[in-house]
Amino acid sequence: MKIKKFSPKQKRVMCWWGPRSADRHFDAIICDGAVRSGKTLCMGLSFVCWAMASFRGAQFAFCGKSVVSLRRNLLQELTPTLEELGFRCRERRSENLVVIGRNGRENRFYLMGGKDEGSAAFIQGVTLAGVLLDEAALMPRSFVEQAIARCSVQGSRLWFNCNPEGPQHWFYQEWILKRETRNALYLHFTMEDNPSLSARIRQRYRSSYSGAFYRRFILGEWTAAKGLVYDFFDPARDAVPRPEGQMEQYVISVDYGTANPCSFGLWGLREGVWYRMEEYYYASRKTGVQLTDQEYVRALQALADGREIRSVVADPSAASFITALRQAGFHVVKANNDVLSGIRITADLLKRGRIAICEGCEDCLREIAMYRWSEETEGRDAPHKDNDHAMDDMRYFAVTVAAGERREEGAFCSVVRRS
Questions:
Q1: What average pLDDT does the segment 62-75 reach?
Q2: What is the 8-class DSSP label of residue 5?
Q3: CA angle (84, 86, 89) in 5-degree steps
Q4: Residue 176: what are its φ and ψ, rounded to 5°?
Q5: How large is the average pLDDT for residues 163-167?
Q6: Are 353 and 411 in contact (CB under 8 A)?
Q7: In this structure, are residues 75 and 45 in contact, taking their beta carbons and an 8 Å threshold?
Q8: Which long-range contacts link 92-99 to residues 24+ away (Cβ below 8 Å)?
Q9: Can you tell me the mean pLDDT for 337-346?
Q10: Which end of the chain has fewer beta carbons closer than 10 Å to its terminal beta carbon, N or C?
């Protein structure tokens, strides 16, 4: 790749630690703001250049939600850029380690994932001269604080970047609002700070989000999620007629319930669009009768109605029902159940017309009109647990099937690659 020019804000990130910089007295840097605003690459370059200029034979860490996401979102672009600048980069994948050298100096950069509370244990005991936390707001507080605590070398510094979350998020409360007492340089990015984005690409990203996600990922605001989850979707306006004839493929999505409602969606693919053609919805509290796994298997077989079903995407917690479906001959895939990421992906697919809800799917259309963010949770986003069963099976399908196919087309970076 060729190194493109940097914006003024990116240049400030690149040089803040330099001996002639007005920002050199800061102990940390925090960059937040919109998606695709150019934070990640300039942060990575600056971090490595600072480390190589300041230390020899020291240990550092790149931290992310996972090691896989670090390689995809950071190293994939950073490593070739560093090599163009004359650095030698040798990755030891089995050790999650990158050894970087230049002009007789060499330092070690570990890759560490902070996916859950247990991840903090993996960073204990190591001594670091600096750490870069990519997407800090997505990592558990315990992991971030443990990474910070490991930076005990004289002259060590901290580097954070993230997209905004809710205003009660611990990172916003403890670092951004307290940046002066933390002695941290804070820089807020917009897409206009990334000179590599054309006006057309910026507009494409703006059209990918709505509601709280638009305010966070496009405007770069730390804002609460309120109101309808899919506030852009009007069932009366946006439901589509059911396609006639044979579809290219069929998939069934399942949100399993015994006391709670059970929801199935039959999806058919035609010319790149997945249609929710039919559905099954059973609420035992209304009927007063709970059904068995075998009765639900028969209901799913009736929904399939002799069609060749590519796969059944099921609620991963429905162990007994998954077993019953497999015994009945269905290929079952356990769904990805990351709620917030799933909602973002589902919203993107709905807005782009890559999934569509047909007019006869009354329970899905009823729920989408009432599916709201809860205002009772503090510090985290969560939808109300009422009217969410068809919403859950739609989300399982969107993330596990429809999003995967778009990823194969190379068109899904707006959601899975946040920078």
A1: 93
A2: P
A3: 85
A4: -70, -45
A5: 90
A6: no
A7: no
A8: 96/67, 98/62
A9: 90
A10: N
Q: Which residue is it, tokens 């315990």?
A: 142
Cite the DSSP H helix spans in 218-292.
Answer: 235-238, 284-287
Q: Are strands 262-270 and 273-282 parallel, antiparallel or unpaired?
A: antiparallel
Distant-in-sequence, close-in-space partners of 228: CB < 8 Å, separation ≥ 6: 211, 369, 371, 372, 373
Amino acid at 120: A
Is-contact 25 33, C-beta < 8 A? no
Q: In the block, which residue shows the tokens 């247990």? A: 118
Q: In the numeric block, which tokens belong to residue 340? A: 């917030």
Instruction: Report the range of poorest mean pLDDT among 2-6, 196-200, 249-253, 382-386.
Output: 2-6
350: tokens are 């709905």
Map tokens 């009772």 to a residue. Answer: 376
CA angle, corner 54, sides to 24 and 43, nearest 5?
60
Helix axes of 8-15 and 39-54: crossing angle, nearest 10 degrees: 30
> Is the Cα torsion angle 285, 290, 291, 292 positive or negative in sign?
positive
Q: Is 76 helix (H, G, I), strand (E, B) or coil?
A: helix
* Cα(73)–Cα(220) distance, integer angstroms: 19
C-alpha distance from residue 316 to each of 170, 259, 313 (Å)? 29, 17, 9
Q: What is the pTM of this model?
A: 0.74
Spatial CA neighbour of 417 closest among 65, 131, 110, 175: 65
